[in-house]
């Protein structure tokens, strides 16, 4: 009787272990598929490596959903824009800053503030759309999202243009440019992923 119970227990444990292994494999395959979806989608963007690097860690949330991918890309871009705005703001006290540089920094800070607002509006509007939704309201919402995202990209470009000319060359310009270019690349990628989402409707 005891041997029979021992055998039953062993078989039960083996069944549980086999089920756990199978579940783990399924999750791993699913996760791999989600990651591949992001990688394939990012290939359509202007900066595919950066796109994949910034979004791959969200694969389990994104799954294989184009809207969720675009939404996450916008959220990442907005977070980076907030960080860049703070960084630019701190540069107004940069050692040896000239009057012209100071004005460019203040203008850039304002542009980045506009970028954050526009990306926030885009994200809010995109969240109103349900997966699989279509129709006139869908295209109006999507048009708003694209317009705000494009405007955010213009703000980022305007910030960089404020540091144009040889007189503005130097470490300050280089430091700010590094942060703003990264935001602009993320925003450009988000816009491309929005277009993928739109193409599926």
UniProtKB/TrEMBL annotation:
<dbReference type="InterPro" id="IPR051955">
    <property type="entry name" value="PME_Inhibitor"/>
</dbReference>
<protein>
    <recommendedName>
        <fullName>Pectinesterase inhibitor domain-containing protein</fullName>
    </recommendedName>
</protein>
<dbReference type="InterPro" id="IPR006501">
    <property type="entry name" value="Pectinesterase_inhib_dom"/>
</dbReference>
<dbReference type="Pfam" id="PF04043">
    <property type="entry name" value="PMEI"/>
</dbReference>
<feature type="signal peptide">
    <location>
        <begin position="1"/>
        <end position="24"/>
    </location>
</feature>
<keyword id="KW-0732">Signal</keyword>
<comment type="similarity">
    <text>Belongs to the PMEI family.</text>
</comment>
<dbReference type="InterPro" id="IPR035513">
    <property type="entry name" value="Invertase/methylesterase_inhib"/>
</dbReference>
<dbReference type="GO" id="GO:0046910">
    <property type="term" value="F:pectinesterase inhibitor activity"/>
</dbReference>
<feature type="domain" description="Pectinesterase inhibitor">
    <location>
        <begin position="33"/>
        <end position="193"/>
    </location>
</feature>
């Amino acid at each position: 009787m005891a041997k029979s119970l021992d055998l039953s227990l062993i078989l039960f444990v083996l069944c549980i272990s086999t089920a756990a292994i199978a579940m783990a494999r399924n999750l791993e395959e699913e996760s791999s598929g989600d990651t591949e979806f992001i990688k394939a989608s990012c290939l359509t963007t202007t900066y595919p490596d950066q796109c994949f690097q910034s979004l791959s860690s969200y694969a389990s949330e994104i799954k294989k959903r184009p809207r969720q991918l675009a939404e996450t890309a916008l959220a990442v871009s907005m977070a980076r824009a907030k960080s860049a705005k703070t960084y630019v703001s701190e540069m107004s006290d940069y050692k040896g800053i000239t009057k012209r540089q100071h004005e460019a920094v203040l203008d850039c800070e304002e542009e980045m503030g506009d970028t954050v607002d526009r990306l926030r509006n885009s994200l809010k509007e995109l969240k109103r759309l349900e997966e699989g939704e279509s129709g006139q309201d869908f295209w109006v919402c999507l048009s708003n999202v694209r317009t705000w995202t494009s405007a955010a990209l213009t703000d980022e470009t305007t910030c960089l243009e404020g540091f144009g000319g040889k007189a503005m060359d130097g470490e300050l310009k280089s430091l700010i440019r590094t942060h703003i270019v990264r935001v602009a690349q993320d925003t450009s990628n988000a816009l491309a992923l929005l277009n993928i989402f739109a193409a599926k409707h």
